[in-house]
Amino acid sequence: xxxxxxxxxxxxxxxxxxxxxxxxxELEGFExxxxxxxxxxxxxxxxxxxxxxxLDVVMxxxxxxxxxxxxxxxxxxxxLPVAIISACTQYEVESGIEAGVDAFLAxxxxxxxxxxxxxxxxxxxxxxxxxxxxxIGQPGTAQxxxxxGSTQIAGHPGNAHGIGQSGTAxxxxxxxxxxx
Length: 180
Hints:
One of its GO terms (biological process) is phosphorelay signal transduction system. The protein has helices at residues 15-27, 38-48, 64-73, 90-99, 111-123; strands at 6-11, 30-35, 52-55, 82-86, 103-106, 162-163, 169-170. It is α/β, with parallel strands linked by helices. It has one domain (6-169): Response regulator (Rossmann fold, 3-Layer(aba) Sandwich). α3 links the parallel β3 and β4. α2 (38-48) runs parallel beside α3 (64-73) and α3 packs parallel to α4. The chain is globular. Mean pLDDT is 77; it is low at 126-180.
């Protein structure tokens, strides 16, 4: 693990969001490397050997969902923890779970939720999954920054971006919720 807390590859086409995530993680001791889209992520992931990758969904060249799927297809990155940081529509959550995404964080987010989520993934806290991945839930279940073992999306208070018992996303597209 690089840096005091680990190395994170932050992938987002929005320079301001990349910088926001970078600053918050660096303040907590993480080493942060950034990429502007999924294609750049795939170019640098083997070189920088991150402990965690965060992906936006909507990006040019290669979106976050296809990037996550490619990371899972590659034996060198198959077990790398991947988190989606996006507005997290129901489609994105379902597609992300199918692609092997480990966690979701809804935009807008609180910095404390970002740090908690990345720290948990970097430490691989939690029970081992049947496929050998550590601390990132069972295959096909994504975890947010909430209670261990719960299937949810962490988000900004008041936006209620969560997954209910039926697996449906609640609060997505509500007035006041962010897109991104």
